[in-house]
Amino acid sequence: MIVTFVVLAAFFIVDLFVIGRKPHVPSTKECLQHIGFFVVAALIFGALIWAFSGAKPAVEFYSGWLTEYSLSIDNLFIFVVIMSNFAVPKNIQKFVLSVGITIALVLRGIFILLGAAIISRFTWVFFIFGAFLLVTAFKLATGKDDDEEYKESALIRFMRHVMPITNDYDEEHLRTTKDGKRFFTPLIVVFLAIGTTDLLFAFDSIPAIFGLTKDPFIVFTTNVFALLGLQQLYFLLGSLLDKLVYLPIGLSVVLGFIGIKLILEALSENTLPFINGGQHLDMIPEIPTWVSLVVIVISLGIAALASVLKMRKVEAAAAKK
Asked: What does the domain layout of the chain look like in residue ranges?
């Protein structure tokens, strides 16, 4: 386990703070190489889990990784909006993403520890997790999710009011000098915006992964692999995100399924006195992990295929005009 964390830490540091520190817009070839490397690394990691621990934890890892990776792709929508709203120069967007992804990993790590501690003592919390995922799934399916309509939080508006913040960027610096006076650059607001939205993302991703596995090790590693290569994915999909029109629907099916799975599991291990007198409901069927993986693959696969077909249809119609 220690070796695993050391290797993942090395991946993360190289991805974000060696490659990510180079201020440039990565080419399509560079993006594909990095994404391909980390996807293969995740597949190999799952195979190693299978070899050393068996099929069940390996399937849990693959299911969790696919779900978290898909949620990360969906979360790129808000990164695009934030970068656009704050007019972040393209040559420093990799650096901004590096900081944002680091914040995301730290926040998710905290939520994983809290979540693991809570569910080990209070299984009824799965009712809350399940209900939350069902509400999120409904919002995604009906288009009522607020991801594409980013609004500055009260904290950010307060910062703008009380802190001397210039409208101009100075490369990667948080502070700059203008006319002999010291100012904060807009980067500090951008970091806060990304950090606060990452916190909201954790509320989606952590309940979802705990619906697939209760192993904190698998929960954490799936989140790490989902975040690795995310900055390259941002640049690769930046111009295509608005064309993945059916991804939210595919995600809503996945989150809805996991939400139902969590509620069923909570019922089967029920301890709440007002439900069946505080007794377990033995008649509740257990959904195997492999079924979860099949649902995730089919839902996301159909959503991706439908998006591609829709995009081609729109392009073909535009070409005829």
From this structure: 2-320
